[in-house]
Amino acid sequence: MTLIHRMLIEGPVLTRLLALLVLTLAWAAAPQASAQEDDEDSSARIAEERLELLTTLASAHYDKAGLLAEQGQPDAAVRELRLILKLPFPDDEEVARQLFLVNITIIEIYLESERFAEAEALGRETLEKITDRRPQTLAELHIFVARALRGQGKDQEALEQLNRAIELGRSALEELD
Fold this sequence. Notes:
Layout: H1 3-10, H2 13-29, H3 38-70, H4 74-86, H5 93-112, H6 116-129, H7 135-151, H8 155-176
Helix pairs in contact: 1-2, 2-3, 2-5, 3-4, 4-5, 5-6, 5-7, 6-7, 7-8
């Protein structure tokens, strides 16, 4: 079992998210089978190298953010994570999912530092902008928004968000049956 796989299974939340980010971005960077000519192979290699470099940068920013968060510097950690979101990753569904997890990490940092209004705002913004419309993803976001609302004493709104998460989860389960 590789270190990344062990981190994915055994590590704390930030470590598991980092491992998932590294694995996914590495998967997205993997060369795709192609019957194209040398020019296209060269372009693919350049694109692959670019994605590998972006992945390395994202990993470094993520590790730095984790360290800053552990040192009690949530603002610096959030700034570092936002740098990942600004990297010029290709428009890819799996990369978008990993960038979504970066937003979730920012929301978690806000919640842990009791910055509930900021967590709520980012959660709602992410709900509006997210391209991954899978029920599980949406339910996760509604749960985070509910936690932020609860921290602000907005229990009724938190219940509404939790009901949405439950509804999404049940609906998704029914579709699987």
